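Quarterly update from the structural biology core.
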Amino acid sequence: MKKHLLSLLLAVCLIMAVFSGCGSTKVDEAAAAPETTAVPAAATVETTVEAAPETREFTDSTGRTVTIPYEVTRIAISGPLSQVYILPLAGDMLVGVSNAFAEDAAAYLPAYIFELTEIGQLYGGKGEMDLEALLAADPDVVIDIGDAKSTIVEDMNALTEQTGIPFVHIDATVATAPDAYRTLGKLVGREEKAEELAAYCQNILDMTAEMMEKVDADGARKTLLYCLGDAGVNVIAEGSFHAETINTMSVNLADLPDVVSSGAGNEVDLEQILVWNPDVIIFAPDSIYDSVGGMAAWQSVGAIAEGNYYKAPYGPYGWLSSPPSVQRYLGLLWLGELLYPDYVEYDLQEEVTEYYKLFYDCDLTDAMYQDLIANAMP
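Predicted structure, tokenized:
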């Protein structure tokens, strides 16, 4: 019995020893856990994209600094002269035209131009600008191009304040057309196209200047009158902005003390034209060309009696004026061929065709070209 009790006691002790040993060898879970490096939350990277500015400053030819939209997309023009300049560069931005076109202009101009609102013009012409129509058209800028009037700064400032629309002026003459296009390119954001137009103009200027140097060296420059009006006795005087092409290519005999600035010219009389006795007379498209040959009084004028009179080409604008804009480069080319054929080193039809494509996006056909120069060449 004692032996059995002793065995039982030994067994109990052994079990207790085992459990006691397990306690001494237990691995601290916290200590045994592998060390970990705390990973911070992913850093937030802030990307700041600067918004394009809403406006920018533009300095026009008068020296005025005007605030305009950063991106110009809607343009109004001050009149026909500006319209002719803008058409090949940014015609699709026009919100209106200065006045309605004749039906025959559709042969040369893109169709969209005939769908635009008629806004009128600032100076002269067929009516004042309709400011209500201008405001309704909501242009980004109104562009005036050409010869600066004496009141141009006051006019531009007053109209800008009155309408809330920036008005700008860019000087442009026959001689400065390349620079005018480069300035316009910066204004409307189309510098590449503007440079193409500027380069074309510069090429014509250089070509005609070189030709006229040879003409003058030979003493071959012709005398000329450009006659307008129902009676044909209005002349574009030598000092007129409208006379630039004529002055470049000939001796303009209409040297008068008080020059009329409008396209209607200075009114003289037939006796004065007889005194001047020009080598060549050019009649405006709407003047008396068709009937002057049968007028007895005009037969005393040598150019009429000898058949040295012509009709200025027109379509969609006059090549010598009407308005006095960039299309007058056609007048340079035409007068070169008309007055000095022995000195010309270009093909007139090729040059005219190139102009119509570049400036009007018009594919000029042979028939269209012949219509343009009908009565304009010997």
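DSSP finds 14 helices and 13 strands in the chain.
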